[in-house]
Amino acid sequence: MIEPIVNFFVRVFQWIGRGIGFVIGIILWPFLWLAGWYTRRGWILKLVVGALLLGLVALYGNFFYATQFWKNFNPNYPDTLSFAAPPAQKPADIQDTSQTIEGGEGEIRTCTRSAVVDVAADLIDFNVNQNAWISSMILYKIGFFGIDWDNTPFMDNKASFQRGVNQAIRRTSIELVDTIGRVRGTSQIDRDLQDARGSITFDEETWYFGLQPFGPKTPTPSFYRVARNKLISFNNRLEKCEVVFNARSDNLLQLVDRIASDIGSTSDLIRDRSQNNNSGWFDTRADDRFWFAYGQLYGFYGIMRAVRHDFQQVFQSRGLEPLEDNLEQQFKSALRIQPLIISNGSEDGWIMPTHLTTMGFYVLRVRSALVEMRSVLDR
Q1: Does residue 127 belong to any structural domain of this protein?
Q2: Is residue 258 part of a domain?
Q3: What is the DSSP letter of 187?
Q4: Tell me, what's the pLDDT at 97?
Q5: How many domains does the chain have?
């Protein structure tokens, strides 16, 4: 009675083993053919091909290291930041200028470094100097056997995270140029800030060579390094009392409103993905959405800590400290979520987690805190 059952399962496992062997054979066939071809060649061709293969192996080794090891990643990095104190006394001409400006309460800060500019520059340094910029690496552009890495569950988490951080830097640079880095909207735009904005908004995927247009190009990280240098240059001039930082309530209102809008757009992307693609661990784009949102919150967490320092007078006069404390708590709660594999399961599912929905929940809480802060500033 038992022997037929045992034989049945033996045959089943034999079929499974043969199937696995067949699949492995298909995968290994190109490599076996290449090895056979290589052994039949002359020593000069062997030397050339061997050098190319070693170079390719080294290139993929570096690519794997760059994508899997995150240098100086610290979700609590705002707690390690220290900002310059304002000078004891401003030059007389700066004091007189600040008294003639109309608008909401605040101050025209100068002769001291801006925390917002310093944090933005540090985030660029974190993205392209302390870590390799993944999105423009040649192997990332080639993809996985021609498949975009963003459409696979491999090698793309860090790239998405970096793009999220970069989105926070871009938003900050735009607001610095348009409002905060000049006395009023009709005054001259600061050249350093304008150059920084132009460089940080450059294409995220440019390598040393391209096809459209055809020819050599300046890679993306080089543009971002220029943006960092221009931000540092602006802050150095600000410290020398040569430029101003308009830390007034109307500018803070616009900055908070724009950040809330950016985060709201990310929330919509997460909602769309979680509602229309409940594939659990098999959703290959869920990790992109998750880590982009994570990177965006990571960047804005430090930016908002710096905003609190630069706009200290407005925070005190409007009683924004409790709202900022709540906002920072929401950032911390969101950045604690670091699953090894991102799952986009159904909200009422019981097997696969819903990491994407959970991140979307925290993104909405951050946005809600920003909207509350904006409402107070708008009164």
Answers
A1: yes
A2: yes
A3: S
A4: 41
A5: 1
CA distances from residue 225 to 23, 217, 230, 300 in whole angstroms, order as listed: 46, 15, 9, 20
Phi, psi of 57 (to 5 degrees): -65, -45
Measured CA distances, 125 to 71, 210, 219, 335, 347 (Å): 11, 25, 16, 20, 38
| 18: Cβ contacts below 8 Å, ≥ 6 apart | none
Among 22, 239, 232, smallest CA distance to 119 is for 232
Res. 219: pLDDT tops 60: yes
Expressed as residue numbers, the domain containing 234 is 74-377
Give the lowest-confidence range in 98-102, 170-174, 217-221: 98-102
- Distance separating alpha carbons of residues 134 and 186, to the nearest angstrom: 39
Q: Is the entire prediction scored with pTM above 0.70? A: yes
Pairing state between β 209-211 and 214-216? antiparallel
Instruction: Report yes or no on 347 lying in a domain.
Output: yes
Q: How far apart are CA 228 and CA 241, in angstroms?
A: 20
Give strand ranges (E) for 219-267: 245-248
**234: helix, strand or coil:** helix
In this structure, are residues 151 and 282 in contact, taking their beta carbons and an 8 Å threshold?
A: no
Within a domain: residue 22?
Answer: no
Length of the chain equals 379
Q: Contact 287/155 with Cβ under 8 angstroms?
A: no
Please give the full DSSP string across 8-46, using - where no structure is assigned.
Answer: HHHHHHHHHHHHHHHHHHHHHHHHHHHHHHHHTS-HHHH
Give the tens place of pLDDT for each residue, 84-119.
776 655 554 444 343 334 445 778 888 999 999 999
pLDDT at 101: 43
